[in-house]
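User: Please predict the structure of the protein below. I'd like the answer in structure-token form so I can feed it into my own downstream comparison script.

Assistant: Understood. Taking the following sequence of 219 residues as input:
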Amino acid sequence: MGGKRPVAVSESSALRARKYESLDPDVRLMLQVRNDSAAAFEELVRRYQSRLLTVLEHLVHGREQAEDLAQEVFLRVFRARKSYVPGAKFSTWLYTIANNVARNHLRSKSRRREVNITPRSSGASPAQNLDQIALAASGQMPTRIVDKSEAAGIVRLAMESLNERQRMAVLLSKFEGMSYGDIAQTMGMSPQAIKSLLSRARGNLKTILEPYVREGESP
């Protein structure tokens, strides 16, 4: 009787793998990568490179760093190909790796900052930068409409005001359209915790952005 439980678990994993293989074309591509298909790997990179860069750039605040981290993510995907077993959508698996890579980078960066910290009188917080942008945008015309580049700068700085977990959850929800369940699996949290996290993040963003939205409204 003791040998039946592992068989049931194995069968469950196999059924789950077949489900994701049948539903997700990117899982099928990754299975080809597992069989050493260079063309399949190139196709996955083509499909996800731009999307991954967008998320990473918002997380680490730098295009060059985001490109380096995206390369690291894809390298980890390739190195893990032989042990790959579909247990989720491919995008969920990919962004789980990306989340880990980004968190490791930010932790390392934070430690370096603690060691090499130097006071800078010119430093400004995201909130201060937002105030400066709004002031420059409004000028002498309180009803002036903020243009696209200014709006993008305001939103970027508002995103930077969120903590790391809130920012990741918002990015996965906004740019990847992930469900609470998929984001939870990516970030190693429960769906209910993700729901609360996103609610707090959206509340914070609304509080920060509301004055700048009103700034551009016509009377």
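That's the full token string. The two ends are 76 Å apart (CA to CA).
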